[in-house]
């Protein structure tokens, strides 16, 4: 157990002697290049290790995961984050919503995240809402005013029932439909009466093709009579490829049968344990889904559950430090460094390079040797067309420079999208992507290996 | 975007008409048996769905994961939760610490969780702490008072150096050690000067066997001269089985060489991406680890990243409701229910049973038919020795009954341990465990299937 005085000490910590440099949020980053450089008194900076690593790891991981989902779904699909109930508590879910939006999602079902960050909200009613109804008799107020306000339909429910009969009688649909579930029909009609301009129905409470779809269509057609356009349906179980294709056929048949232009294009949303792989499989099979609601696999980051960012001491009192390890991937790159991204003629980033702070910056049009940090033979001269410095000062401590303003979430999201578009496609293809190269300057290379040799204990060859 | 008025409505929601029944926290539970029963006005109860599911899913999952780690590690090992830096933000980490403790962990490295819940705190210094030192010259104050206060050692650092020479000269150790890293030695000596009664060293910053271990032993032996007992070491990389065994040999050799009783039993802590499988593999190889620090795989729940608890409407206005699905596992069990655990003669739980609220409770010594909820042929008579009702009222709404006090965390943790010990071992063995049976009464069985038949749309056989 700790002394209360320790918590008082923590409360009183002063970060005005700390300087923080960071790559702008929403940037594409690569392993080995530091995301942040933190300078200051060693005790304070060591206390920052855990909060910084905690705040960066999951945020970066879930943003990346969202971007991967966007990549496989394609630009034209609507992606909705539905992860609240599977995240690590309320705040884990808030982080998930924020960073999924940053990574390219369009909306969240997390109302608080929408409120806090202005993320568009999307969702549907629940299965419980559907099963809370028993029959159409439970709808007391059945009046609905036309969208243009011109007249009032006194019995919307009867209009829905008429449409259901017409659908069931239609030659082009006769083979599809029998009796539908009446409690589901009551739930849909009631929902449409409350939200006639945003009627989106969850159609799998009882049976998608034999109940959910005809019930939805009857309500959507009744709304259409009054000038409203229904939003669409959501599938939450079963074979999503098959059900979406069958549903689309029904929508097209209704468009044709009743001459309702645009009914065939009604939005089909799919959910139910979706992830990169299942979306990829749906794409290969063919499907008619317009929008995906993704939860569990998105917020728990199924393809990689944790990101391993670490915080390493690289220099103290102007003396560079190295952390060795039997695992080369865990050897830290010493020294206070500056980091640059070098771009080629086609506008793509070619390579990132880390240099010692005392070295001159790389310049556009000038040849520079880029070396692999650990492998002697991996090196190449590069003449960049354009050079971008990666680390910017966001917290200059007590100096005269102002602390940086952070851009709004939407701007960070745009940066993220643009950065991904700027990458050479082979770096981000799903199968066997070309690794992006991260290098060090010749001077830094020599210094790393000088330090490595001198810090390792004397002994046999490693 | 939502209207601000909606948030005002949410803020004003009154739960005094809601009653909440729950299985006590820290109980072992099985699929299909409701963890909670929530009664009240439908709108309010539907709004409780997402927060309840969010708060229960991850908490239950990570507690279960912790209990699985305890099961594979065995009772004698110390288990420490080190997950803060890989959890879903600060609050995801707080949940992880709390529920890992509940599931059988001994301590956490999350200082705030220790402060909030009284969980014992354990951890070591960082690699950065070690590499922040350059040499022994950096230690200004080298005095250390004997543990019993009897005298003061004026130069603890020289004492450490003497011990390092003795270790290096000792015949029984000569083959092991060469020169050690001096910055590491400085870091250890400095740490011991500040915390002589709790010296625990992270020994893999440079090289475990050639630097970390001899440096640790020199400091531990110097502390021993002054009456202090070092706590031990932590291995955070490399082959943990091999390194722990080699380290133990050195500790035993030192005990013998310098006649220091107990030195051989020095605590060896291991960390570095541990999980159930790696601990199981270590057990099979043989190792000398006394304590495990587990982070990433624990808090991200590697073996199953999410728990799929759902919230289903089972009755409205005294009318039972069912949610159907093409996936039988997703069909909900209708009706307001009471749930019981039936125990056999040996004291083990035999089966859980759900009954309709109107049915009489099962009684000890009386025969009762337990039926699989969906499969006609799976049924058996059971005569329980003891019957436990599972759901208890914690929030009786506005009734005269008092709201239940929640037990302290330590008591919940004890309940969890005891419940696991009460289970028949074949239900919790790692390979092919016998599934524990969950049943319904004959009346509830008939009712489920009556409702299923009548709610499903008329059509072909399913």
UniProtKB/TrEMBL annotation, chains A, B:
Pathway: Cofactor biosynthesis; NAD(+) biosynthesis; nicotinate D-ribonucleotide from nicotinate: step 1/1. SUPFAM superfamilies: Nicotinate/Quinolinate PRTase C-terminal domain-like, Nicotinate/Quinolinate PRTase N-terminal domain-like. Its EC number is 6.3.4.21. Its cofactor is Mg(2+); Mn(2+). Keywords: Ligase, Magnesium, Manganese, Metal-binding, Phosphoprotein, Pyridine nucleotide biosynthesis, Transferase. InterPro entries: Aldolase_TIM (IPR013785), N/Namide_PRibTrfase (IPR041525), NAPRTase_C (IPR041619), NAPRTase_N (IPR040727), Nic_PRibTrfase-Fam (IPR007229), Nic_PRibTrfase_pncB (IPR006405), Nicotinate_pribotase-like_C (IPR036068). Residues 228-330 form the Nicotinate/nicotinamide phosphoribosyltransferase domain. It catalyses: 5-phospho-alpha-D-ribose 1-diphosphate + nicotinate + ATP + H2O = nicotinate beta-D-ribonucleotide + ADP + phosphate + diphosphate. GO terms for biological process: NAD+ biosynthetic process. GO terms for molecular function: metal ion binding; nicotinate phosphoribosyltransferase activity; transferase activity. Residues 336-447 form the Nicotinate phosphoribosyltransferase C-terminal domain. It comes from the Eukaryota. Residues 2-57 form the Nicotinate phosphoribosyltransferase N-terminal domain. The keyword Transferase applies. Transiently phosphorylated on a His residue during the reaction cycle. Phosphorylation strongly increases the affinity for substrates and increases the rate of nicotinate D-ribonucleotide production. Dephosphorylation regenerates the low-affinity form of the enzyme, leading to product release. NCBIfam families: NAPRTase_put (TIGR01513). Belongs to the NAPRTase family. Catalyzes the first step in the biosynthesis of NAD from nicotinic acid, the ATP-dependent synthesis of beta-nicotinate D-ribonucleotide from nicotinate and 5-phospho-D-ribose 1-phosphate. Helps prevent cellular oxidative stress via its role in NAD biosynthesis. This is Nicotinate phosphoribosyltransferase. It comes from Triticum aestivum (Wheat).
């Amino acid at each position: 157990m700790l002394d209360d005085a320790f918590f008082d000490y923590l409360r009183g910590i002063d970060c005005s002697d700390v300087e923080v440099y960071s790559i702008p949020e929403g940037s594409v980053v690569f392993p080995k290049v530091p995301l942040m450089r933190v300078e200051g008194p060693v005790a304070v900076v060591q206390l920052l290790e855990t909060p910084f690593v905690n705040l960066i790891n999951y945020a970066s991981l879930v943003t990346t995961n969202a971007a991967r989902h966007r990549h496989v779904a394609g630009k034209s699909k609507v992606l909705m984050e539905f992860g609240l109930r599977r995240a690590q508590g309320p705040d884990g879910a808030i982080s998930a919503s924020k960073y999924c939006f940053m990574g390219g999602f369009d909306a969240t079902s997390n109302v608080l995240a929408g409120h806090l960050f202005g993320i568009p909200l999307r969702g549907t009613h629940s299965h419980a809402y559907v099963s809370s109804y028993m029959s159409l008799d439970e709808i007391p107020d059945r009046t609905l005013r036309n969208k243009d306000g011109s007249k009032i339909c006194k019995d919307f429910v009867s209009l829905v029932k008429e449409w259901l009969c017409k659908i069931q009688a239609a030659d082009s649909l006769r083979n599809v439909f029998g009796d539908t579930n009446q409690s589901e029909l009551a739930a849909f009609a009631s929902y449409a009466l409350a939200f006639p301009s945003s009627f989106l129905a969850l159609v799998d409470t009882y049976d998608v093709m034999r109940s959910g779809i005809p019930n939805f269509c009857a309500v959507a057609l009744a709304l259409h009579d009054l000038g409203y356009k229904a939003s669409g349906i959501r599938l939450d179980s079963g074979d999503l490829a098959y059900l979406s294709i069958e549903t689309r056929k029904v929508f097209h048949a209704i468009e044709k049968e009743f001459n309702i232009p645009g009914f065939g294009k009604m939005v089909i949303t799919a959910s139910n344990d979706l992830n990169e792989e299942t979306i990829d499989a749906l794409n290969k099979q063919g499907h008619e889904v317009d929008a995906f609601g993704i939860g569990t696999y998105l917020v728990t980051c199924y393809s990689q559950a944790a990101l391993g960012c670490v915080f390493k001491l690289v220099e103290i009192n102007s003396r560079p430090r190295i952390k060795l390890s039997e695992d080369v991937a865990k050897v830290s790159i010493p020294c206070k460094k500056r980091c640059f991204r070098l771009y080629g003629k086609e506008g793509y980033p070619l390579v990132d390079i880390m240099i010692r702070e005392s070295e001159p910056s790389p310049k556009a049009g000038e040849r520079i040797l880029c070396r692999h940090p650990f492998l002697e033979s991996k090196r190449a001269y590069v003449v960049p067309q354009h050079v971008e410095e990666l680390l910017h000062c966001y917290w200059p401590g007590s100096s005269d420079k102002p602390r940086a303003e952070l851009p709004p979430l939407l701007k960070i999201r745009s940066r993220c999208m643009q950065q991904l578009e700027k990458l050479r496609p082979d770096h981000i293809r799903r199968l066997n992507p070309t690794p992006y190269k991260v290098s060090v300057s010749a001077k830094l290379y020599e210094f790393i290996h000088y330090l490595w040799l001198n810090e390792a204990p004397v002994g046999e060859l490693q």
